[in-house]
């Protein structure tokens, strides 16, 4: 026990030697990331209130009914606050769509109005969008398609039903006047519509605001990347040292415990540095998070203590990667690949709901996915038991695997 503690103190001295440089590097990296994050978050919040979905209209617009309908939508209907319709050729629409200038485009076939008037409805309108397109835009367009389909078909059924009833009762004299009156009644209902869609916003993801979600994601991603910044702590490891320590009474578990605890101290120092900077920034009012509005820096301090299990778990994962690969260059490369790939799949850069269901399930089961959901819960003070147990389970597994690898390496000599 004494020898194990002595080994831990040796590792801690190594931490103190590299700590000033590591703090400087982390400060520079996080300053750059923080400035960009604040800029993009605020830019997205400002543009979200004024941005419209650009929809291209492809087809012959010379028909008076069609032209009148499109003009009416753009002039008086509530959908004009969400969607902007632009007439263009199909070639222009495809080019604009590939460049990202259009959210989608609608292809109107020739003879659409005649098909509706005759009751055939054999010329459907084609809505062209990207594969796997998700988000609020899809909600809006689904609402538009549903509204248009219902208005056209039910209006048509009502008019034809009225004409059939009048003809059956021999009242054909005022047929066209009644048809015109009913058309105007339908038109008045359409133009008087004030409920385009009923949408309740619960947050960008996991019930959090945009600032809150990306704050949690960036914090975890920073801890992942710190595995690269903290590589000097593992740059002089040797197999011979592990055997010597074993001979002097410090086994595999004692070696892993001493090195891991020293690494945890380095990680906590880096995290504390970032939180001190955040406390100054948030205290000055330069950046605020909706979940902590008017709470000062007290929620930030509470958040710091709540995410300590995540810091321990991610540190254990990084320690395991360094234990798996002995070469420092290979270890750094593996750290980087794991950080980027696992962070992407878990929704650090885009909310996981943007991905297919299979990818979402994989991302949720990864250590980064469990860490993100746990951290999101810490943000609002509602940590779910499964996420907490998942973090602890990964922590124990990573440490046990590290001990197993160290023991195997000692036995091989």
Strand count: 4
The 3D shape can be described as elongated
Strand residue content: under 5%
Over the alpha carbons, how many angstroms does the gyration radius reach?
31 Å
Mean pLDDT: 75
Secondary structure category: mainly alpha
Separation of the first and last Cα atoms: 23 Å
Largest sheet: 4 strands, mixed
* String of helices and strands: HEHEHEHEHHHHHHHHHHH
Q: Percentage of helical residues?
A: 55-70%
Plain-language structure description:
It is a single chain. The protein has 413 residues and is mainly alpha-helical. Helices cover 68% and strands 4% of the residues. It is built from 15 helices and four strands. The protein has helices at 2-48, 64-75, 90-98, 112-118, 136-168, 175-191, 210-229, 239-247, 252-283, 298-306, 308-324, 328-345, 357-365, 367-380, 385-412, and strands spanning 53-58, 83-87, 104-107, 126-128. Strands 2-1-3-4 form a four-stranded mixed sheet, covered by helices on one side. It is elongated, with a radius of gyration of 31 Å.
Task: Give a brief outline of the structure.
The protein has helices spanning 2-48, 64-75, 90-98, 112-118, 136-168, 175-191, 210-229, 239-247, 252-283, 298-306, 308-324, 328-345, 357-365, 367-380, 385-412, and strands at 53-58, 83-87, 104-107, 126-128. With 413 residues, the chain is mostly helical. α2 (64-75) links the parallel β1 (53-58) and β2.
């Amino acid at each position: 026990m004494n020898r194990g503690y002595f080994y831990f103190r040796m590792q801690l001295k190594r931490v103190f030697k590299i700590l000033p440089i590591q703090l400087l590097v982390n400060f520079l990296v996080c300053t750059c990331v923080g400035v960009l994050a604040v800029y993009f978050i605020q830019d997205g919040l400002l543009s979200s209130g004024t941005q419209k979905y650009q929809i291209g209209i492809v087809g012959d617009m010379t028909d008076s009914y069609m032209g009148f309908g499109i003009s009416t939508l753009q002039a008086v209907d509530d959908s004009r606050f969400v969607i902007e319709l632009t007439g263009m050729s199909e070639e222009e629409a495809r080019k604009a769509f590939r460049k990202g200038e259009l959210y989608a485009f609608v292809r109107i076939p020739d003879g659409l109005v005649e098909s509706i008037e005759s009751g055939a409805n054999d010329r459907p309108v084609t809505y062209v969008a990207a594969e796997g397109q998700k988000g609020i835009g899809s909600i809006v367009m689904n609402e538009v398609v549903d509204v248009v389909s219902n208005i056209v078909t039910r209006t048509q059924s009502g008019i034809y039903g009225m004409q059939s009833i009048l003809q059956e009762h021999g009242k054909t004299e005022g047929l066209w006047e009644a048809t015109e009156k009913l058309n105007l009644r339908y038109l008045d209902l359409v133009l008087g519509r004030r409920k385009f869609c009923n949408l309740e916003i619960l947050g960008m993801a996991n019930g959090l605001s945009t600032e809150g979600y990306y704050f949690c994601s960036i914090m975890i991603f920073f801890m992942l990347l710190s595995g690269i910044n903290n590589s000097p702590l593992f740059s002089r490891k040797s197999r011979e040292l592990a055997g010597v320590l074993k001979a002097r009474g410090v086994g595999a578990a004692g070696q892993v415990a001493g090195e891991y605890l020293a690494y945890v101290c380095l990680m906590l120092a880096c995290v504390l540095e970032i939180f001190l900077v955040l406390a100054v920034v948030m205290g000055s009012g330069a950046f605020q998070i909706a979940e902590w509005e008017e709470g000062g820096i007290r929620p930030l301090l509470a958040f710091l203590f709540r995410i300590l299990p995540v810091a321990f778990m991610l540190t254990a994962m990084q320690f395991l990667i360094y234990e798996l690969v002995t070469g420092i260059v290979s270890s750094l490369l593996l750290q980087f690949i794991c950080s980027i790939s696992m962070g992407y799949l878990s929704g650090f850069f885009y909310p996981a709901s943007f991905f297919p269901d299979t990818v979402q399930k994989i991302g949720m089961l990864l250590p980064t996915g469990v860490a993100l959901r746990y951290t999101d819960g810490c943000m609002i003070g509602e940590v779910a038991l499964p996420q907490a147990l998942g973090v602890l389970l990964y922590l124990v597994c990573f440490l046990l695997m590290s001990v197993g690898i160290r023991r195997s390496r000692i036995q091989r000599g």
